[in-house]
Please model this.
Amino acid sequence: DAKTTQPPSMDCAEGRAANLPCNHSTISGNEYVYWYRQIHSQGPQYIIHGLKNNETNEMASLIITEDRKSSTLILPHATLRDTAVYYCIVQSNFGNEKLTFGTGTRLTIIP
Amino acid sequence: GAVVSQHPSRVICKSGTSVKIECRSLDFQATTMFWYRQFPKQSLMLMATSNEGSKATYEQGVEKDKFLINHASLTLSTLTVTSAHPEDSSFYICSALRGFEAGYTFGSGTRLTVV
Model:
């Protein structure tokens, strides 16, 4: 699987949009971009994933650049409960492949 | 949504004893489950892939005789930490893939403390 690069930490004011970047310059054509987050002392939680089109669900939006070498996760109205470590992972769609976690971005929402 | 139940959430054991951690997929069948370990302020490290009806596949550096994995049914995988030592104290997390579109579902984790 391709490696990803994320900033180690970010702060965001409560109520503002949180934009978390991820670089995946070696992503291959069959690899999806997945985002998970881990709130302290809990298991990771799936947020969203995409291949090349922008995606939106009830939790977040995912913007993938046209060359697919980077992406941004957007939490439109951050709340204190969004404080967590966010992981960007690229993975192929061949099913049951193991997820490899990088160091992620520690997002802190500030009141 | 898909739920993976992990039990116990916390366990304290004495050095030299064994501890079993259960991971259950509650509303779907999982032919494959994954076990991770996480030390404080570090990322998740994959330990092994648990395959229903066959032997687990261990990552490099993980002792298969120390971390016994059994995946006897499509809804249950267990991780047994044998002859536990204080350095085995960690946060253990399991996960399963329900379907590709749904991503991986993770258990809530087990905090193991060996004293």
Strands of chain A lie at 9-13, 18-23, 31-38, 45-50, 55-56, 61-64, 70-75, 84-92, 105-110. The interface with chain B takes residues 34, 36, 38, 41-46, 49, 87, 93, 95-96, 98-104 of chain A (CB under 8 Å).
